[in-house]
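Why run this: before we spend reagent on co-expression, it is cheaper to look at a predicted model of the complex and decide which construct boundaries make sense. The entries below are exactly what would go into the expression plan.
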Amino acid sequence: MMLRRLRTSISQKIMLLVLVTTASALLLSAAGLVMYDLRAYERQWTADLNLQAEILARASAPALSFDDRKTAEKDLSLIRVRPEVLAAAIYTEHGRLFATYVKQGEPPQSFPLRPEVDGHRIEGDEIVIFRRVVENGEPLGTVYMRARYLPWARLLDYLAILGVVMLASLALSSLVFGWLQRGVTAPILEVARVAREVMTRRDYGLRARKTSEDEIGELVDAFNGMLAELGRRAEALREADRRKDEFLATLAHELRNPLAPLRNAVEILRTPEAAPDMRNRALDMMERQLRQMVRLVDDLLDVSRITTGKLAVRRAVFDLREAARDAIETVRPFIDSRRHELEVRMSEEPLAVDGDRARLGQVLGNLLHNAAKYTEPGGRITLAVGREGPDAVVRVRDTGIGLDERSLASIFDMFVQVDRSLTRSQAGLGVGLTLARRLVALHDGTITAYSEGLGRGSEFIVRLPLASASGLPEVPTTNVTAARNDRPRRILLADDNVDFATSLAAVLERSGHEVRVAHDGAEALRAVENFRPEFAFLDIGMPKVHGYELARRLRDNPQTADCVLVAVTGWGQEDDRRRAREAGFDRHLVKPVDPVDIESIVAGA
Amino acid sequence: MNCTPVRWLAALLLATASSFAQAQAAEAVSESSVKAAFLYKFAGYVEWPRTDFHGPEAPFVIGVMRDDAVAAELQKLVPGRSVNGHPVVVRRMKPGEALRDLHILLIGGDDPDRAAIRSAQQQGVLVVTESPLGLAAGGAINFMVVDERVGFEVSVEAAQRSGHRISSRLLAVARRVVQRGE
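The model came back. Tokens follow.
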């Protein structure tokens, strides 16, 4: 029980430490003191007795000289003032007993028959001294003395004193410890208690009481600070969790939303008596809803890349105005549908930026899309692209719902949406601005939001460092169409998604190409036997023979060695691209594939 | 060879006779030798004026008058002995002889010669007597025999008259100490 408490309680440990330290220090110093004193006692006592014997020798010299026993005995009897001396005697020059003394109360003593040489020796608890009597250089006799020698009695005295001192100092230590307990251990125990309570109740609002301004106080402060930080983090985790839940709900809703109009459109197309303009409207609607869904899924993929930190940009020097034009072109239909007025102020000179044109176009498109979305129909949107000092700056201003201060602080956080009252069809996922900020940061730029308040519109500003204009390619855009080669090609499509493969084949065949479709690797290998495709679009995750293996076999086959091999995968990481290159692929497309990309590969080869 | 028993008997008789004589002599000599030893030892308990010596090699002289036995014992005793570094010399004195250079003078006899004592004292000689009237006659130290043991008595005043101070340690073992003359 005692041992258990020693193990667990810090105060008991300190108590033990204090007591052991005090006791051992006392014992050590006492041992040293006693040893020194016993030595000193022996030295002093023998010196004292020697002096006594010397005095006695001198005093008894005349008595010995003149053979006066009475005087000698009188001299000897003076020793009675030293009660430690038990017996004494004087011997003549010839070694015969001359005079004796025995302490009163002591039994009759037997004296040595003959005196010994000068010196002292210790016999048990007695000390014996012989001292020659010499006068005028002539030996006259010997003085003999026997006295008590009791170092052990002295030692016992010491032990008694030590015991008392020990008790007193231990009591003092206990007092000191009591003070220590109040000043040091009690606050620490308080911290431990609060820590335990926090662990059991999960209540990060608890705080330890601070009682002093010393290091212990600092410890308590630090502990409380850590509790506060823990509480903040737990809250942040809960908030992130809540946002994720909201995001999932929104996502499900967003993905479900286009499906109803799509099904309706399919029903219309299936109806034979539907009027042609009705069919066209249905097709337009289908395309719009599809584009919306593709955008959603693209955003989702980007989110996953952000969270795994694998969002990559492919850099090249280009004119930022082109990215702005791309963005306008993409968002224009949406702006028009909301009857906004779009004012564009484009810089006259080119703005060379080292970066990913598609990604930056995505950022600007995002900002324009947001501006259109968060502005009541019939609003005004301004896009300004220009140069400010060493930066290329794009400003997107709207006359929309604006932002309050709190929203300005959190607008770039993941899954945050300002206006929850928006109709769901306009809501989006709340990842656009997060994505935009991350992409701009990857280009060493900044993106900031300003608003004068709710209902007073907002402005987003993107700043990107300018690169030297010399790297700009010379007006390359016009050449693309000129380089097009529209002659029919032999194309192999291999994908286990039958719908995707069949529909893509239909599109390509309409463009005049000859297309073969395979739904697994083995079928694809059989298909190339007498087909000799010029292009092969191969899914990687196919049954029987997967894409990498298929590519290697096609490269090894002399008939298809020159074929352009394009990998079509759901994985766009750098590692996947490397593996595709190693397997022999020429290009790499990430699902979902836009038929336009395939057309351009076939045309531009 | 035939006369051996006779000679053996003679030797025995002779030995017996000589041991008897020795015992008698020891009895007789004992008192004198003790006195001689005391006489020499007195020197150690007396302060001698420096003027008594003519240099470090000068002898310490003990004169003996009218006691040949003690003089003989002393002469046996003193060779090789010294007082304060001065070799001890014994001189037999006749009455009326000059007392120059003496340090201690033993005047024997039951009837001390008062004139000799006074003369010795005037010349700074410590006078020792061996008579019951010794101190009364002016001696500084007087031998006495009580219960067949030799003792002595001291007159501090007499010693002072001859210019000597007797050590209190000697006084402690004296049978009798007289502070003032009698």
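The longest strand of chain A covers residues 138-148. Chain A is about 55% helix and 20% strand. Bring this page to Monday's planning discussion.
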